[in-house]
Structures are given as C-alpha cells and as structure tokens.
Amino acid sequence: MSIERTFIFSPRRADGLPCSKILPDESFQHQPPIKVTIMSYNKVAIAGAGGNVGSAIFKQLYADKYAVTVFTRPGMQSQIPSDVPLVTVDYNDVEALTDALRGQDVFISAINVQRAMGSENVMIDACLRAGVKLFIPSAFSVDFFSEIGQKCAFGLPQHKIAGYARERGQPFIIMTTGPWVELCFVQHAMWGFDVKNRKATIYGDGTTEISGSSFEGVGQAVSAMLRRPEPYINQIVQVSNITFTPNQILAALEKQAGVKYDVQYKPVDDLLKQSEKATDFPSKHYPLMLYTVYAPGGCRWDRTNSDALGLKEGSLEAAIIKAADELTSRQ
Ligand SMILES: NC(=O)c1ccc[n+]([C@@H]2O[C@H](COP(=O)([O-])OP(=O)(O)OC[C@H]3O[C@@H](n4cnc5c(N)ncnc54)[C@H](OP(=O)(O)O)[C@@H]3O)[C@@H](O)[C@H]2O)c1
Q1: Ligand 1 in contact with 111 (CB < 6 A)?
Q2: What residue owns the CA closest to ligand 1's atom 19?
Q3: Is 140 in the pocket of ligand 1 (CB under 6 A)?
Q4: Which UniProt keywords apply (predicted)?
Q5: Which of 72, 91, 112, 214 to mutate to test the pocket of ligand 1 (most atoms within 8 A of CB)?
Q6: DSSP H helical ranges for the chain
Q7: What range defines the domain where residue 34 resides?
C-alpha cells in the first residue's frame, strides 16, 4: 500500500512577492491554499537481496521500515530476518511472477543481469500485469547513456531495459551509481588495484574525478528515492555519495597496507586499444567499462540528485580501508 502525504503550500502574495516568512495579511484573502499530493511507496519486493548491491539495498529498506518482501529463485537460500516474507519464484515465469507481485508498489531487481539475460523483460511484463507502480532494474552502474558510456554499452541488458520499459508503459527508474568503491577498487584487481600483490595500474595521471558510491550509499539512495519518487520516474538518475580520484584510491590502499604499492601509469587510451584487439565479449567489454570510468568526464556528475535525496558525501578512505581490511583478513 502506498502512502500519500498532503502538503499545503501557501501561494504567492497577490503582489507577486514570495510568501515565505511573510506574515499572513489581506493579500492572501482570495487565494485558497494549494494542495500538493506527494506519493511515496511502502510495499517493496526485491529480487537478488543476497547479492553485493542487493544486500545493501535490502538492509537500508528494512532499517527504514518499508514493508519489504524478498524474492529468490527456486533452490536458493536467503539469509533474511525472520519477520521478512520470502517468496520463491522463477523470474522467467511471467504468470508466477505476476501472482507474487500482486499488491506490491515497487519491484526492485538487484539480480546479476549478465547471468540472467532476458529475465528483466519478464519482470516488466509481470509488473504491468500485477499493477506494480514502479520497477527499478538492476543497473546501479556507470552511465551507459552518456556519450562515453555508450561505447561500452553494446550488448548489455542494462542499456536496453529502459527502452523496453518505455515501450511497454511500465514506470521505471534507472539508477546510475558509478563504480561501487569497495567492489571495484578492492575486490576486483581488473580495475587496476591489486590489493593482494600491492600493485596498481593507474590509467591517466590519477587526477581524474570520478563519481562513485559505497554499497551503503546505493542503499540510502534507493530508500530516499522511494520516499519521493515523482521527479525520477522514467528517468536515468545519476547519484553518487563518494567523489574521488585514482590517486586517492591508491593513497587509501597504501595507508591500509602500511607500504607503498608498485605503481605504473598508462595512457587511458590504452584501454580502447585493448578492447579493439580483443575478440570475445568480456575481453572487449571490460576495457571499455574501465575507459568509461577513467576517461576524464566519463563518470563524473554533479550532486543535484544526491543532494535532493539527502545523500551525504562519504569517505573514500574509510570505505576502502574497511573493505581492504576485510579482504586481507580472509586471505
Ligand atoms: N557499479 C558497479 O560497480 C557494479 C559492479 C558490478 C555489477 N554492477 C551491476 O549491478 C548488478 C548486480 O550486481 P551484483 O554484483 O550485486 O550481483 P551478484 O551479487 O553477482 O548477484 C546478485 C543476485 O543475482 C541473483 N542471481 C545470480 N545468478 C542468477 C541467475 N542466473 N538468474 C537469476 N538470478 C541470479 C542472486 O539472487 P538469488 O539467488 O536470491 O536469486 C544473487 O544474489 C549487475 O547486474 C550490474 O548491472 C555494478
């Protein structure tokens, strides 16, 4: 069930002056208050709640007291609190998914779309049938719609899903979060930072500014957006809670390790050349993904949406050090 909050805004004065902080006077007499209804959503189903980003989104929605239902695939286990409904459903079975979605306001997909090609089209069809008011696909990534982002978007389901939702008439929000700092720069050495061997390859001179997010930041952005979704419906929304440079990632990793890394700097265009030479999909795609992030302006946006959603700027150093501590303690 969705929640309606009604706000009464006083109108401008008859003489056109703004009315804030002005005591009521006779200039208001013939102007009734304007009623503005703001819709927020409460009943939220989420698929992929055990994944990297899905677990952070689930944690925030649960903490913020949304009525969350977790969907999982047949045969899968999910570690969720006992008071959260768990529904096992095949994401490719439109009838079953429609039944599971009835009564939900929002369906968030945080599944690994690369492993489940086509499932989100079925999810959109099921949302339409079940009357779900908003679908958030599992994008949470770089901006595949920007000029540079389009280079690496070919063949990716995230790029096509907005078109499918628009065509079918299902309201959606695509969230572009930039790289997740804990995953990309600590866990996955392919991004250039090899924590285990204390080596780094930096593309460019290391001073390019990048808009990214911590897992917690993505969860906070989703939760805040569901409280006031209207401005974002059917939009590609750029959010970020950490702005940083590759040199700052290196500094945080060196601080965590207590030693200097073995570092080499390479021109960012090397990534385009690597992609051109490659013949299979992942080897062609990954350098372009890195290019999108490391090319100047490729993954940098202002804080307009983040500020409107109340996202505070987080600490890159704290996020990197915590993730690297966790990684090294497991090794
Ligand atoms: N911004 C970034 O830095 C960044 C990095 C990586 C990925 N991404 C994006 O974020 C999305 C989620 O990535 P992630 O790393 O959070 O995913 P993940 O942890 O690998 O997987 C998330 C969930 O997907 C479900 N899943 C896995 N294989 C599936 C399959 N074959 N069919 C259906 N569901 C399957 C599982 O949920 P159940 O077992 O509960 O069904 C799993 O918990 C990606 O698709 C990508 O678009 C962004």
Answers
A1: yes
A2: 51
A3: yes
A4: NADP, Oxidoreductase
A5: 112
A6: 52-63, 94-101, 119-130, 157-168, 181-182, 215-227, 246-257, 270-277, 281-294, 304-308, 316-330
A7: 3-38
CATH number reported for the structural domain that contains residue 234 in this entry: 3.40.50.720
pLDDT tens string 155-212: 566 678 988 999 999 999 999 999 999 999 999 999 999 999 999 999 999 999 999 9
Closest-lying ligand 1 atom to the alpha carbon of residue 141:
1
Which stretch of 30-34, 189-193, 230-234, 323-327 has the lowest confidence by average pLDDT? 30-34
d(CA 13, CA 18): 6
Number of domains in the chain: 2
How far is 157 from 114, CA to CA, in rounded Å? Answer: 7
pLDDT band, very low/low/confident/very high, at 38 (cuts 50, 70, 90):
low
The CA angle 65-215-245, to the nearest 5 degrees, is 145
In a domain, 75, yes or no: yes
How confident is the model at residue 78, as a pLDDT? 75
Q: Which atom of ligand 1 is nearest to the CA of 138?
A: 11
Same domain, 67 and 163: yes
pTM of the model: 0.89
54 within ligand 1 shell (Cβ under 6 A): yes
